[in-house]
From TrEMBL:
Keywords: Cell membrane, Membrane, Transmembrane, Transmembrane helix. It comes from the Bacteria. Coiled coil: none annotated. Residues 194-326, 537-702 form the SSD domain. Signal peptide: none annotated. InterPro entries: MMPL_dom (IPR004869), Mycobact_MmpL (IPR050545), SSD (IPR000731). This is Putative drug exporter of the RND superfamily. The chain crosses the membrane at residues 177-197, 204-222, 228-247, 268-291, 303-328, 380-399, 535-554, 561-582, 602-623, 647-668, 688-710. Residues 338-364 are annotated as: Disordered.
Length: 736
């Protein structure tokens, strides 16, 4: 692989104008396609095969009037008892009539008829039924809905529209640009050259632009959840910058050694590019592997992110060499350009592996921080391992208490329309009114449905935790009845989860009709439970995959096992700190979180897939140098020190860049994106600095030569992927 990439790098530099034009044409073409073909994103999370989803599908078929999106308008009078006055009743009826005539609305229920009036006569709830699903509601319809009751508000009343219809696509604003700015500063400090930093950033931004444009171009035919593009952007930016950083760093080192720009870029792509391809492949495989859990929206999210990573890899090994060709020696700081142009040509086979120069102008400088840190860690390896394990163990303590749920309006940003509505409903009626359930009773006989519906209502009403059951509504044929159920607890409370299971057990024995429980709350519970069940299976798949892939790269048994165990430590600590902040509220104010709550149900499994790929990045970039030096005669301990010394700088820069990019998304108001950005930033920090740069060299030093042991029969059957560039070294030696 290294030899093939060496040739690709040289060809990309020689034909740099053509390569640049091709990528620009691709970017513009996909941009036009995205602008013309882009479709809406979905805010709902469907789960085929669950009871709640079967009920939704059945309603869409038999009772379409009740299958559309719903809204709840909360009304608060200036004082207690005003809803009972003639003036108050007239005002509420006016708001109800205004809501009923909105575009896309099929009807609004008068709260006096539905008895949705609080005991103190100050709060009322107007139920609004839309014709289409929440994702079908247009921005114009949503805006009109949010402006309902303007005249009443002018009279001192509070009108707060809410409900699932308000779900929209998270907006990417200026806050996350701060992360990109920090990444740019890290690049400038790392390279000491504005040209090198600027080209690395430009390369990454072009890759992100191509990936996102392609994703939006496909959104007209593929249903994307609203978080999928954000995840793709987040990950595409981070890996795009990092992959370009690795190749540019290696190219600069070869220029310092006296190689021509064409030869330098060829070797950089052949060595660092090999590691980039392998690292990118692990990320793509992990994300695409989400399909094995058979959850459609999660599969689409994983494939969307995998697509942007694939583009980042392709851009790094083709466009980066082309841009480096345009820059020539200007990618070096001024003080090093003369040294780079006058230093003798390095031996053709005198290559270091894919990692980083020390930044001092010579590959032989061993006084840098990486070498000093490696000496310290290997000398104090046992205390270092114990302290690191203790620290990660303490961070992981909250992890067993992790609760999963789909987000509801109670955790929305304070002051947002959804949050204001939710707070008013809770204030006037209690938390159960924000998470209503729906029981569907259906059969092929109207008589059977009519007989079963009252029986079901009685059984549900007798279930502990049920506050009220609304009278059944029937479809025009009489074959399907819908009963509204109000629980005593909120949508994400554990008590509501238990209630859903209790109701299903209660109605399981009803004869003559099928009874299904649904509603946004039940859907959220079903999705969370299926994701929780899939989590151990996916974790086992990822750990097994990591061992197999690293065995191919390092021709070792213990190194892959050590890497997999380190990954598990990263996952446990990341889960723990995320639970502490977002679920338990510890230091929640530092991340702008208004209300702690359960973690979004797909976060853990998504986090495992992404962190796996990133952890393997750092493992390859550090340990490949260790293996290379060990194979060429260094002791196991010295090889470990060399790998850390040469790789620490670039891994530190890469980790800081990823932390900055992911951390920029913490400042978004959307709690789902906020938690994703925080968890990924924390996971990268833990894995890069604690696991890979501290525990790994300490354990490698402790294992000594045993780290590189592999049975002969296994060594023979494993294919040689040549990530370190041994084949390329032989190829260059033959040319001399």
């Amino acid at each position: 692989m290294a030899t093939l990439l060496y040739r690709l790098g040289r060809a990309s530099l020689r034909h740099r104008r053509l390569v640049a034009v091709v990528w620009l044409v691709v970017l513009v073409g996909l941009g036009v396609a995205a602008a013309t073909l882009r479709g809406p994103t979905a805010s709902n999370f469907t789960m085929p095969g669950t009871e709640s989803q079967r009920a939704i599908d059945l309603l869409a078929e038999r009772f379409p009037a009740a299958s559309g999106a719903t809204g709840t308008i909360a009304v608060k009078a200036p004082a207690d008892g005003q809803l009972a006055t003639p003036e108050g009743q007239a005002l509420v009826k006016q708001v109800t009539q205004e809501a009923a005539t909105l575009p896309g609305v099929v009807g609004a229920v008068d709260p006096y008829q539905s008895q949705a009036i609080s005991p103190n006569g100050r709060y009322a709830l107007i139920q609004v039924q839309f014709a289409g699903r929440a994702d079908d509601v247009t921005d114009a319809q949503r805006d009109a809905y949010e402006k309902v009751g303007a005249q009443a508000e002018a009279q001192g009343w509070q009108i707060a529209p809410g409900g699932e219809v308000l779900g929209g696509e998270p907006e990417v604003g200026s806050t996350e640009a701060l992360g990109v700015l920090v990444a740019a500063i890290v690049l400038v400090i790392t390279f000491g050259s504005l040209v090198a930093a600027g080209m690395t950033m430009l390369n990454a931004l072009i890759g992100v632009g191509v990936g996102m444009a392609g994703l939006f171009a496909l959104s007209g035919t593929i249903e994307l959840t609203s978080t999928a593009p954000i995840l793709a952007l987040m990950l595409g930016l981070a890996v795009g910058i990092d992959y370009s950083l690795f190749i540019t760093s290696r190219h600069r080192q070869h220029l310092i050694e006296g190689l021509s720009p064409e030869e330098a870029v060829g070797r950089a792509v052949g060595t660092a590019g090999s590691a980039v391809v392998f690292a990118g492949a692990t990320v793509v495989i992990a994300l695409a592997g989400l399909a094995v859990v058979d959850i459609p929206f999660l599969t689409v999210m994983g494939l969307a992110a995998a697509g942007t990573v694939t583009v980042a890899v392709l851009v790094a090994i083709t466009l980066a060499p082309a841009l480096l060709g345009f820059a020539g020696h200007r990618v070096l700081p001024r003080r090093l350009r003369r040294a780079g142009s006058t230093a003798g040509t390095a031996p053709a086979n005198g290559m270091a592996p894919a990692e980083e120069p020390t930044g001092s102008g010579t590959a032989e400088d061993r006084s840098g921080f990486g070498f000093r840190w490696a000496h310290l860690v290997t000398r104090l390896r046992v205390p270092v391992i114990l302290v690191a394990l203790l620290g990660l163990g303490l961070l992981a303590v909250p992890a067993p208490d992790m609760r999963l749920a789909l987000p509801d309006a109670s955790t929305a940003a304070a002051g947002s329309p959804a949050r204001v509505n939710n707070d008013l409903v809770r204030e006037g009626f209690g938390p159960g009114f924000t998470g209503r359930l729906a029981v569907v009773v259906t059969s092929d006989s109207p008589q059977a449905t009519a007989a079963a519906a009252p029986q079901v209502a009685k059984l549900v009403q007798a279930t502990d935790g049920v506050l009220a059951v609304a009278p059944p509504q029937t479809d025009p044929t009489g074959r399907t009845a819908l009963l509204g159920v109000i629980p005593r607890s909120g949508p994400t409370d554990e008590a509501t989860e238990e209630l859903v299971h209790d109701i299903r057990r209660q109605v399981a024995g009803v004869d003559g009709a099928d009874v299904l429980l649904t509603g946004a709350t039940a859907i959220g519970i079903d999705v969370s439970e299926k994701l929780s069940d899939a989590l151990p299976v996916y974790l086992l798949l990822v750990v097994g995959l990591s061992i197999l892939l690293l065995m191919l790269v390092f021709r070792s048994v213990l190194v892959p096992v050590k890497a997999a165990l380190g990954f598990l430590l990263t996952v446990a600590a990341t889960f723990g700190i995320t639970v502490a902040v977002f679920q338990e509220g510890t230091l929640a104010g530092l991340v702008g979180l208004d209300t702690p709550g359960p973690l979004v149900s797909f976060l853990p499994i998504l986090l495992i897939g992404i962190l796996f790929g990133l952890a393997m990045d750092y493992e390859v970039f550090l340990v490949s140098r260790m293996r290379e030096d060990y194979v060429h005669g260094d002791t196991a301990r010295q090889a470990t020190i060399n790998g850390m010394g040469h790789g620490a700088r670039v891994v530190t820069a890469a980790a800081l860049i990823m932390i900055s990019v992911f951390g920029g998304f913490v400042f978004l108001d959307d709690p789902v994106i906020k938690s994703m950005g925080f968890a990924l930033a924390a996971g990268v920090a833990i894995d890069a600095f604690v696991v890979r740069m501290t525990i790994v060299p300490a354990v490698m030093s402790l294992l000594n030569t045993a780290a590189w042991w592999i049975p002969r029969w296994l060594d023979k059957i494993l294919p040689n992927v040549d990530v370190e560039g041994e084949g390329l070294r032989a190829h260059l030696a033959d040319k001399v």
